[in-house]
């Protein structure tokens, strides 16, 4: 059985998603944010097989070192942000000293590309390259569940004023990659509550 557990982590309340196969007792972690201790107890008894990153901004990767060392599992990130893990300048941690110390991590084991299929814990996830918030932003689709990072929120969209952001690209990603998926698709954003494609089509003032 497929199960999703959500925790907002760190000062920016970044959503980390635990994807669980309750039959095989395997798990995938999406965006291990800062102060990840809260996710360890729910993962007891599970083998973590992968860490998927929607993008490499510091609030989405703040707990990466702890989680990686604890579970000894590979990290996946889009190729355009491969270097961001090792650069405190690019991952933004240098820009907010009042929030975090500079962050630098080991490179990811796997680089993602658009339309790639990932088979993890017996399920197939589709990688959608959805740039705009950042150049290498991706969304992960499993059946009617889309993990959108900071591309689309409930009644809002991702900011584009950070390095590498592009408003036109963001709108193109949302309209061509997300809104075409079907109204019933559930959207799990990097911050805030879950929404649906249909709800955003009707009520999101930015799209």
Automatic annotation (TrEMBL):
- Write the signal peptide boundaries: none
InterPro entries to which the protein is assigned, alphabetical: MBL_Glyoxalase_II, Metallo-B-lactamas, RibonucZ/Hydroxyglut_hydro
Q: Which reaction does it catalyse?
A: 3',5'-cyclic CMP + H2O = CMP + H(+); 3',5'-cyclic UMP + H2O = UMP + H(+)
List all membrane-crossing ranges. Answer: none
Report domain Metallo-beta-lactamase positions: 13-191
What cofactors does this protein use? Zn(2+)
SMART domains in the record? Lactamase_B (SM00849)
GO MF entry, a single one: metal ion binding
The alphabetical list of record keywords is:
Hydrolase, Metal-binding, Zinc
User: What Gene3D superfamilies does UniProt report for this protein, alphabetically?
Assistant: Ribonuclease Z/Hydroxyacylglutathione hydrolase-like
The UniProt function text for this chain reads:
Counteracts the endogenous Pycsar antiviral defense system. Phosphodiesterase that enables metal-dependent hydrolysis of host cyclic nucleotide Pycsar defense signals such as cCMP and cUMP.
What is the name attached to this protein's record? Answer: Glyoxylase, beta-lactamase superfamily II
């Amino acid at each position: 059985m497929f199960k999703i557990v959500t925790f907002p982590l760190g000062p920016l309340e970044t959503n980390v998603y635990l994807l669980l196969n309750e039959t095989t007792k395997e798990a995938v972690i999406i965006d291990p944010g800062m102060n990840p201790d809260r996710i360890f107890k729910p993962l007891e008894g599970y083998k973590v097989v992968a860490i998927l990153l929607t993008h490499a901004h510091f609030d989405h990767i703040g707990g990466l070192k702890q989680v990686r060392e604890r579970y000894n599992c590979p990290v996946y990130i889009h190729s355009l942000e491969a270097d961001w893990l090792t650069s405190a300048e690019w991952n933004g941690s240098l820009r907010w000293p009042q929030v975090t110390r500079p962050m630098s991590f080991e490179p990811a084991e796997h680089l993602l590309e658009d339309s790639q299929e990932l088979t993890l814990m017996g399920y197939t996830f589709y990688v959608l390259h959805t740039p705009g918030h950042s150049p290498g932003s991706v969304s992960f689709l499993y059946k009617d569940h889309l993990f959108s990072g900071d591309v689309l929120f409930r009644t809002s969209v991702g900011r584009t004023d950070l390095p590498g952001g592009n408003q036109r690209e963001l709108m193109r990603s949302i309209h061509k990659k997300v809104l075409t998926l079907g109204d019933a698709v559930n959207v799990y954003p990097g911050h805030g509550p879950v929404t649906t494609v249909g709800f955003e089509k009707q009520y999101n003032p930015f799209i």
